[in-house]
Design a protein that fits this description.
Layout (H helix, E strand, L loop, with lengths): L2 E5 L3 E4 L4 H12 L4 E4 L10 H13 L8 E7 L6 H9 L3 E6 L19 H10 L2 E4 L13 H16 L5 E3 L5 H9 L3 E5 L1 H5 L23 H12 L6 E3 L8 H4 L14 H11 L6 H13 L7 E10 L4 E3 L2 E3 L7 E6 L2
Parallel strand pairs: 2-3, 3-4, 4-5, 5-6, 6-7, 7-8, 8-9
Antiparallel strand pairs: 1-10, 10-13, 11-12
Helix pairs in contact: 3-4
Bound molecules: N-carbamoyl-L-aspartate and zinc ion.
N-carbamoyl-L-aspartate (NCD) binds next to loops.
Amino acid sequence: MDTIKIRTPDDWHLHLRSGEFLAAVLPFTIRCFQRAIVMPNLKPPVAAVASAETYYQNIKSLLPAGSIFEPLMTLYLTPETTPELIAAAAAHPHIYGVKLYPAGATTNSDYGVGSLKSLDDIFAAMQEHDLVLQVHGEDNKAHTDPFDREAVFIEEQLLPLRQKFPDLRIVLEHATTTSAVDFVNAWPRTAATVTPQHLLLNRGALFAGGLRPHHYCLPVLKREEHRKALLQAVTTPGQSSFFLGTDSAPHPTGCKHSACGCAGIFSAHAAIELYAEAFDSVAALDQLETFSSLNGPAFYGLPVNSGSITLKRESWTVPVSYPFGSESLVPLRADEQVHWRIVG
Ligand code: NCD
Ligand code: ZN
């Protein structure tokens, strides 16, 4: 198969940032995705309905004339979130979920929550109003090994939450391990997004010939056995619980080339193309549309997109960097080839 046509895909986990950074990265996403779940980890976080609406309008105002791109907004769950706020968010036409960040687990997560135990009234309200809970599933205890954070979180926090609120719709964001795959497959109303980097790279990519800051994201890349399990999960015919979420997370080059570099991989410039590579690597291109364009809308209760895109097997070289406001950013595969291209 050298050409593949799929229904227009959506990105169910995206960081668009704000201000000049937002203007710089938005064009990459709208070239192939029709909708995107926009993550709320700005500074300060998008924690109120009014801030989500302002952010929505902001994104909309930057779209070129005629664009039908639709940002799907999320609220940042903080210790100040109330059940009343959940009710208001569920009633809002542009808000599609609430994102849980364990405090300290990732970029701009300082406003997040310590333990889930004190949040039962919030989860009860989300379950009642059928608002999706999006989870950054990593344990935040300082002594937990970084490579075990997802498995520990699932075991200690997510499983009890899942059992206590059986009707709550939960997305385990950026799944990276066999533990995540097993958890998602075991439970109804439970899904996961999967990034291109976790399908294409294992943790060796962090150290290939030297330290590679542009392969550092959270959750961190895992062992090959986990990558293989993810690839199998997303390409299994009939699977409906895994869908596309790039976690494209741009940072200025200077923040990555640093003694304490920040976490996040920018992939929006080649997102669907990289997923095509991953599916192609196991001869499963026929499953790409289900993962990219069908499972996400089904889980979120939205219609599938009516348009389509066509991808062709054709190599192109990714630029060394892209402008990022007054700074620059280094994209995934910088100065290397991507083997699929959008042709229509
Ligand atoms: C994300 C970011 O930079 O906002 N970073 C990352 O490594 N994925 C935050 C996140 O999704 O964890
Ligand atoms: Zn993210």
